[in-house]
Write a structure and sequence with these properties.
Blueprint (H helix, E strand, L loop, with lengths): L8 H6 L4 H22 L8 E7 L2 E6 L2 H9 L1 H12 L5 E6 L5
Parallel strand pairs: 2-3
Antiparallel strand pairs: 1-2
Length: 103
């Protein structure tokens, strides 16, 4: 019979060596990228950006509908220029998708 003690939740959530800790860290990174991109968008687009992520040289954006995704694509060049100037990132293209189940 095993007598191992349960791991305290604080250790699971705060330790970046655990799966949960890595997940929390990655979520915080995505949240930071999303907030950075959101600040660069025109006011009418800001609430429609659900998430942003970087993958190699591509900035991936998730919009809440196809209409807002199209408008984000229209501003793609401005977003890339602003990110490069403000953050020193070397992104080259933007991919905009619509969230699954979006109306």
């Amino acid at each position: 019979m095993s007598t191992s003690k349960p791991v305290p939740l604080k250790e699971l959530l705060g330790d970046s060596d655990t799966t949960v800790g890595r997940l929390i860290t990655r979520c915080a990174e995505i949240d930071a990228i999303t907030n950075t991109v959101r600040r660069l968008l025109p006011d009418d687009l800001k609430p429609h950006l659900l998430a942003a992520n970087e993958s190699d040289v591509t900035l991936c954006l998730v919009a809440d509908s196809s209409v807002w995704a199209a408008k984000m694509r229209y501003h793609a060049a401005d977003i890339l220029i602003s990110l490069s100037a403000a953050q020193g990132r070397s992104l080259q293209k933007i991919r905009v998708t619509v969230a699954a189940g979006a109306c």
